[in-house]
Specification:
Elements lengths: L1 E4 L4 H13 L4 E5 L19 E5 L5 H11 L3 E4 L6 H6 L2 H24 L2 H6 L1 E7 L24 H20 L3 E6 L1 E3 L8 H10 L4 E4 L5 E6 H14 L5 E4 L4 E3 H15 L12 E4 L14 H7 L7 H14 L1 H7 L2 H11 L3
Parallel strand pairs: 1-2, 1-4, 2-3, 4-5, 5-6, 6-10, 7-9, 8-12
Antiparallel strand pairs: 9-11
The chain binds nicotinamide-adenine-dinucleotide and thymidine-5'-diphosphate (TYD).
The site of nicotinamide-adenine-dinucleotide has 32 residues, from helix 1, strand 2, helix 4, strand 5 and strand 7.
């Protein structure tokens, strides 16, 4: 079996659902269930013996040691993190605690477990660390996309905390020999995405008749990847990645935010037209820019393709259509994540609007 951390969050839950849809290897899912963790996303696994959910903190060394001893996973796939840049600007404490200290404690518990293994179990063991392209900082408009050897230049408290975790993972390999793999992926989108992030926020605000808040001029560029393609990349790296290597994961889909918002609006205009016949794009409003806002991210994913033969299955056009359709078909999931805690965040970040 494998141990997944953060498997009740957006990408982790998609990974767990896809994993168990493909084969029967069980998953132990360790998740603290912060505001971003949502067991409803995993409702289809209720009563499924292949999925063992444990509510807990990756920083709880005794708990992690017990889970490793009891379940003896062949791999740990580490998604758990605080992941929202804007929240890291409002307060970075949780980011430091989970992304840095939590990853350190997890690495130590995993190292102790791995050291106790023998022979084939020890050599087959893997620790896969899921990270982000944001550790590389911001690209000039005409600069080449990030390769794995790009310097680390994190600019937000979030990306700095992820960069620190990447360095810890690297050091645990070089110093202690821990069999690690790291993936650095671009912006994901798709089903079960918490509506504090750009794409789901725009969909739910549009449908609710609310303003669509675009930061600054909206010309910041992100490189978007459909979440299930990220999951397939992680599976492939886990299966065949070279130990100690990092792999950039991306979809060759660079787009400025304002274009993303217009695409979402056009799809909604087609699939769920407004009663008054106007376009959802009339709801777009430009709001104060994010402090320290990175202008451009772009991933060069050629290493992953050349070494491991991975390619995304979705184009942006197919992936965004599936995503908008998914949100239209799952108003109950959206309503349930828009809890009291969610409303407080929206109030703090966007005011009364
Ligand atoms: P998310 O915020 O949706 O989910 C994070 C999950 O981790 C939640 O279920 C939360 O409850 C859990 N968690 C948080 N702190 C924990 C702790 N101390 N112990 C145990 N569980 C804890 O995040 P996501 O978007 O699914 O991102 C998953 C990973 O992928 C993160 O490491 C993130 O940095 C990375 N990543 C995300 C993106 C993206 O676009 N979302 C892109 C590249 C990489
Ligand atoms: P986000 O989804 O928060 O991901 P990240 O900051 O990790 O890239 O934001 C994606 C882009 O969208 C980013 O450039 C910030 C911008 N953005 C807005 O313009 N308005 C919003 O309300 C949000 C949440 C993001």
């Amino acid at each position: 079996m494998i141990l997944v951390t953060g498997g009740a969050g957006f990408i982790g839950a998609n990974f767990v659902l896809d994993w168990l849809a493909r084969h029967d290897e069980p998953v132990v899912n360790l998740d603290k269930l912060t505001y971003a963790g949502n067991l409803e996303t995993l409702a289809s696994l209720q009563g499924d013996a292949r999925h063992v959910f444990v509510q807990g903190d990756i920083g709880d060394s005794a708990l992690v040691a017990r889970l490793l001893a009891e379940h003896r996973p062949r791999a740990v796939v580490h998604f758990a993190a605080e992941s929202h840049v804007d929240r890291s600007i409002h307060g970075a404490e949780d980011f430091i605690q989970t992304n840095i200290l939590g990853t350190f404690r997890l690495l130590e518990a995993v190292r102790a477990h791995w050291s106790s293994l023998d022979g084939a179990d020890k050599s087959a063991f893997r620790f896969l660390h899921v990270s982000t392209d944001e550790v590389y900082g911001s690209l000039a408009p005409d600069a080449p996309a990030f390769t794995e050897t790009h310097t680390y230049e994190p600019n937000s408290p979030y990306s700095a905390s992820k960069a620190a975790s990447d360095h810890l993972v690297r050091a645990w390999h070089h110093t202690h020999g821990l069999p690690v793999l790291t993936t650095n992926c671009s912006n994901n989108y798709g089903p079960f995405h918490f509506p504090e992030k750009l794409i789901p926020l725009m969909i739910v605000n549009a449908l609710a008749g609310k303003p669509l808040p675009v930061y600054g001029d909206g010309m910041q560029v992100r490189d978007w990847l459909y979440v299930k393609d990220h999951c397939s990349a992680i599976r492939r790296v886990l299966e065949a990645g070279r130990l100690g290597e990092t792999y950039n994961v991306g979809g060759w889909n660079e787009k400025p935010n304002i274009e993303i918002v217009h695409i979402v609006c056009a799809l909604l205009d087609e699939l769920r037209p407004r009663a008054d016949g106007a376009s959802y794009s009339t709801q777009i409003t430009h709001v104060t820019d994010r402090p320290g806002h990175d202008r451009r991210y772009a991933i060069d994913a050629r290493k992953l393709e050349a070494e491991l033969g991975w390619k995304p299955a979705e184009t942006f056009e197919t992936g965004i259509r599936k995503t908008v359709q998914w949100y239209l078909e799952h108003p109950g999931w959206v309503a349930n994540v828009q809890s009291g805690a969610y409303r407080q965040w929206v109030q703090a970040q966007y005011g009364a609007a």
